[in-house]
Structure formats: C-alpha cells, structure tokens
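User: structure tokens for this one?
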Amino acid sequence: MTGEADRRPGIPSRERGAISVADRVVAKIASRVAREALSRFTESAGRVPPGRRTPHVTASVRRAPEPNAAGRDSESAAGGQVVLGEARLRITVELGYPSDIGAQCAAVRREVTERLRAWAGMDVPELAVSVERLHSVHSRHTDQERVR
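Assistant:
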C-alpha cells in the first residue's frame, strides 16, 4: 500500500502513525459474530437460557510486520486487502442438547474467521471453539445444573 507518506522519506515510519486493533475489540467482534452464527441453529438456541447465550472470547492479537519496499506479502496474502495483524482466539460456547454440535462449532469458526478478515483486517491462524456446557430440555425445568 503506497501512499503519500511512503513517498516522504524525511518522516520516520514511527511518526507517520499506524493502525492497531486492540485485543478487546477483536474479542467483541468475535463474540458478536459467534452469537449470530449460533442463533441460526434454532433447535439449539431455544434450549440455552437467555443469560448464557453470549459466547466468551479470549483474544491475542499480534501486529503484522511492517511491509518493506521489496515485498508486499501482507497485501497479497489477503487478496489485495491489507492485513493489520494476526488474531489467535479461544471461543467458549454453551449449546442446546441434542443438536448438531459439530456444525455449530464449524459455523462459528468459519464466520468469525471471515468477518475478522473483512471488518478488522485480521488473519486468524488459530481459532479454538470449546463447548463449556450443554443445556438439555430435561435440565432446564429443574433446579439442577446437570442431568444425572
């Protein structure tokens, strides 16, 4: 990405500014996208209590290395879009049971990866989705947390 700032050699790169996306911003985007992806699975979403539908996300963001004049690999890797960094994510969800757990986790992985690239310019080389709790129809009507 060449711009006017790249053509002014008298200004050091650290003084020209940079774009960075904070860990909490990436986590908030991922949480919202994961919630949207899971809401499409109506058979599962109806079994999870309202207070437990928001996925918990832990994010670790690393800035992309500064592009050098010889190679613009951060632009070419994203198909012309500038990559601002890498995000490694761990998403913890609670799902309804019985349901297609694999399909729900795959949807979360796919949509979070696509939207973080589009919205925040982040590559997601590592994304782990873990299921913390399954909510059964039988356990919802009792005061117990588990079905025994």
